[in-house]
């Protein structure tokens, strides 16, 4: 079995807003050789299915895409298989009840023990979900503490808005998710994102793939706070 590249946790359940709030992210894996999909209960729910009631296939996934997005997603899947690269997309899902979900798919490669790319794995993020009232209250209490870091957070939000064509609230939602998922302070992730953005390749087809990988692995490269204090001479 292939393993996700750069530290994907097997079976990990992605969370955006934490306990007590609706789950708005879920994980997936896709093997190129037999075009086999796995999805988490959260992704199944986005499509309107209860856990373990349906086996995901390419045909089923495409059937749930908004008609205006279906061809785009089909091509993205074929391109992923053809070029052995991550499956990444922004599109709409129509669930079994007819409801529309605006999602971003963040992907990375899965690599086997020999170093061969065998598939793609990552997360679906449902951007249509609203932040629960109690979580918003927590954010309102946290934001004043982030005042000094507001500029870099706003810059990072701008990058996400540009890459994924989402609004400011949704961009903050994505940053918050990565902060909670990796247990790294939001302002540190934002600063690392800005520090690394110039490393992206200029070719448009490669930009989102490279950005997705960078976003999903930022936490691995954020310097420890203890190390930064020693280096700066701070207490």
Could you walk me through the main structural features you see in this protein, from its secondary elements to its overall organization?
- This protein has helices spanning 41-46, 58-63, 70-83, 133-142, 150-164, 168-182, 186-196, 204-217, 225-232; strands spanning 3-4, 25-31, 36-39, 89-94, 100-111, 117-126.
- The chain is of the alpha+beta class and 235 residues long.
- Helix 5 crosses helix 6 and helix 5 packs across helix 7.
- The longest helix has 15 residues, at 150-164.
- The N and C termini lie far apart (47 Å).
- Residues 1-23, 130-135 and 231-235 have low confidence and may be disordered.
Short description:
The chain has 235 residues and is an alpha+beta fold.
Please summarize the sheet with the most strands. 6 strands, antiparallel
Order of helices and strands: EEEHHHEEEHHHHHH
Average pLDDT across residues?
80
Structural category is alpha+beta
Note poorly predicted spans: 1-23, 130-135, 231-235
* Radius of gyration (Å): 18 Å
Question: How far is the N terminus from the C terminus?
Answer: 47 Å
Percent of sequence in beta strands: 15-25%
Helix content range? 40-55%
Shape: globular
Q: So how many helices?
A: 9
Strand tally is 6
Pfam families: ANTAR, PAS_3
Keywords: Kinase, Phosphoprotein, Transferase
EC number: 2.7.13.3
Domain ANTAR: 133-194
